[in-house]
Amino acid sequence: MQRSPQASTEALRRWARRPWGAPLLLVLLVSAAGITGLRADPLSRASAAFRQGDYVLAFDELAPLAGAGNARALGLLGFLHEQGYGAPQAYDLAIRLYARGAALGDPFAQARLGLMYDKGHGIAPDPVLAYKWLNLAASRASGEMRSLYARYRDAVASKMSETEIREAQRLAAAWTPERIVPASAAPRHPSRHIAGAPTRE
Predict the structure, then answer these.
(1) Composition of the chain by helix, strand, coil, percent to 5
(2) Same-domain status, 53 and 141
């Protein structure tokens, strides 16, 4: 027989009023929270560490995932390198990480790669490739991120000719995501083995 939520809540309150009930309940809740945190997947742990400002832990959690070909981890690790959070600031490495994550289809990596091409951070500015990657990011993202990436794309488009926009749209339409490399074939240290930035092919 299943109890109603009100009956369960009342039983929990009666139990907690006992002399040993409240301390035991607190220990159980803290233990359950710790176990949940330990069981969280590495990407969730990395995101939580990033939100808390523990960039070294975020880096440590993301590096093996990126090495295994996790597109989201590649994008996030690229961001850490771009900003110099938990790792030395290295635009060239950030571009390679973004490029790999973008090729695998992660909208965040695609948007960041597009912005790198737009600003010329660590790479020659290229509005066509900036538009291409931002357009793909906007088409693959959802909600607020989709709107944000579309605004970035439109800002880049405002600096382009019609011919350049058509070329960028052609490149975006021809793009297909790469397959994820099996973990057994992936490099162990992504910072040394990730392919260079994509070209206009």
Answers:
(1) 70, 0, 30
(2) yes
Is there a domain that residue 201 lies in?
no
Query: End-to-end distance of the chain based on CA atoms, in angstroms?
Result: 65
- Structural domain boundaries, residue 15: 1-39
CA 183 from centre of chain: 19
Provide the 3-class DSSP secondary structure of residue 17.
helix
More confident residue, 19 or 101: 101
pTM: 0.72
186 and 146 part of one domain: yes
Residue 170 lies in a domain: yes
Nearest of 95, 99, 86, 145 to residue 120 by alpha carbon: 95
Measured between alpha carbons, how far is 26 from 24 in angstroms, rounded to an integer?
Answer: 5
Better-predicted residue by pLDDT, 90 or 190: 90
Q: Same domain for 3 and 55?
A: no
Q: Is the pLDDT of residue 13 over 90?
A: no
